[in-house]
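Tokens as discussed.
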């Protein structure tokens, strides 16, 4: 059982935790002379792997379990971004810690595919621009993967063959089937209980796709770099209690002190962790994008169904 902190103390602890998580770095890669593709996040890294199979080596800048808003690439990773056949990025500010590095790679001639450019986007809710979290909707991810397959074939000559095209088409079809699967899982949640409270504004696309209401967020920002205030959290706790919201959803890649304190103040409210911006560790039920989406849908349905 988690030890809950008073909200004011949790605000300070959460801020320190977000600073600490930004200090780690990690990557994965391979060899053997095959073409190399660099993906900025673990989510996109898995999508590229599913599209390419063993035809390419994939390097991931922000490893599973880490916050993509916070981490910065190492000097070696920055060099890899300039030298790879293709960089696959999310875009819309998700990779806030290395926007300058991506821009420098472009200036050096690297081809950068930003997935957000290939989906129907939503406003970020803060008046700042586009919500970057399209990947919480597998239907939009299918659109991005379809566009990515075309770019991979164009930019990586070794992939421009029938075997790759067939594999890519099969994976895009799998993502569209995943969308239908998620909808079926969520059928257990009646309309009046389709309410979401999250660590930060991360589930907008999920809510848009499956008919949920966004009640509020601990950090009212599309990134974890925003700030929470004790007063705003008090108001959110009161709203949760008044609306009878049964659960709040925390990010597995971020500290949970603030969410725990919010749930404690609101009353009989569960805290449920979701893999909202990062895959789970290898061997977990969320170590692929499809597994992550299924796991989140199951946890949301279990937490909110009567």
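Sequence:
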């Amino acid at each position: 059982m988690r030890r809950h902190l008073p909200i004011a103390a949790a605000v300070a602890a959460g801020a320190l935790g977000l600073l600490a998580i930004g200090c780690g770095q990690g990557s994965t890669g391979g060899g053997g002379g095959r073409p190399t593709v660099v993906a900025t996040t673990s989510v996109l890294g898995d999508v590229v792997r599913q599209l390419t199979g063993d035809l390419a080596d994939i390097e991931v800048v922000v490893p599973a379990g880490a916050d993509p808003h916070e981490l910065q690439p190492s000097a070696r990773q920055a060099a890899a971004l300039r030298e790879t056949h293709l960089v696959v990025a999310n875009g819309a500010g998700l990779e806030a810690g290395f926007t300058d590095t991506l821009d420098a790679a472009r200036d050096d001639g690297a081809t950068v595919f930003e997935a957000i450019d290939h989906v129907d986007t939503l406003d970020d809710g803060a008046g700042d621009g586009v919500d970057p979290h399209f990947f919480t909707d597998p239907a939009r991810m299918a659109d991005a993967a379809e566009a990515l397959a075309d770019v991979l074939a164009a930019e990586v000559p070794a992939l421009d063959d029938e075997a790759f095209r067939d594999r890519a088409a099969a994976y895009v079809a799998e993502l569209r089937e995943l969308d239908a699967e998620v909808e079926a899982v969520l059928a257990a949640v009646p309309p009046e209980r389709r309410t979401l409270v999250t660590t930060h504004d991360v589930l907008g696309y999920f809510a848009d796709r499956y008919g949920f209401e966004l009640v509020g967020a601990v950090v009212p920002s599309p990134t974890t770099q925003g700030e929470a205030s004790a007063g705003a959290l008090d108001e959110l706790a009161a709203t949760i209690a008044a609306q009878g919201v049964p659960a709040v959803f925390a990010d597995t890649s971020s500290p949970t002190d603030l969410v725990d304190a919010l749930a404690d103040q609101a009353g009989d409210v569960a805290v449920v962790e979701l893999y909202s911006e990062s895959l789970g560790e290898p061997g977990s039920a969320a170590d692929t994008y499809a597994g992550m989406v299924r796991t989140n849908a199951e946890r949301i349905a279990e937490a909110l169904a009567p």
